[in-house]
Amino acid sequence: MHPLKDWPLQARRLIIGVLTDIDDTLTTDGAITADALAALVALQAAGLYVIAITGRPVGWSTPFALEWPVDAIVAENGAAAIFLKKNAGRSNEYGHALLSKLYQQDESTRRANDRRMQRVARRVMREVPGARLSDDSPGRETDMAVDHSEFTHLPAEQIAQVLRIMHGEGMNATVSSIHINGWFGTHNKLDGARWIVRELLGRELNAEMDRWVYVGDSTNDQLMFEAFDNSVGVANVRRFEAQLTRAPRYITEGERGAGFAEVAAALLTARTA
Prior knowledge:
The protein is α/β, with parallel strands linked by helices. It contains 8 helices and 14 strands. Strand 10 and strand 11 (179-183) form a beta hairpin. The longest helix is centred in the middle third of the chain and has 21 residues, at 107-127.
């Protein structure tokens, strides 16, 4: 991982969009900080696309899709996207009526998968000592999440046991900085990014990978770190360094929201240099 200052000016000048994780990348201690929010505002003002991609649920993500200056939030590891309706503005006056929501799976598939996930969840709670579903589980529509570091602590051996159960049940599973996420389907963060860039912006991400940057902090960002030459880890990614088989190319000095603000500053400086 190279220091962010080593990110070439020419590469930064090409960037048209930012894809970013949320927890411990945009947020600090569960909330967006003033510097990270100001960075989002500045990126939008400069005409860059900003899309957040998270393992958090649709329900949890909805208020932020209304409040943050982002083009969309892709939730539940690529399964669903939430974004403001065209010409809706950013007033909360009409609440969810301002938002559009898209899914990668049809309704019947989502219902069938939900029944399967409920069975897996019961098995995890029964077989893994100390395991509990995440507090944001009521807002989940296409996946399940087990808390390991947000409001409880699950040791590494129990995390591994949860993953074995999920994989054994035919689920995809990843570990974020706070949760173990499991779902049925082939989607993931990268697939979700390609999908929403095409659906919302009418662009083909595969054709312009060098024009986007991805910012993340954890092992569940490895697919994105590998896919994008312009990949950045905020400094707290170092706590997962020993577990990373695919590391970001660059790393910030600051952690969490402060690190994201560094990335935004690097992009904006390149536009005037």
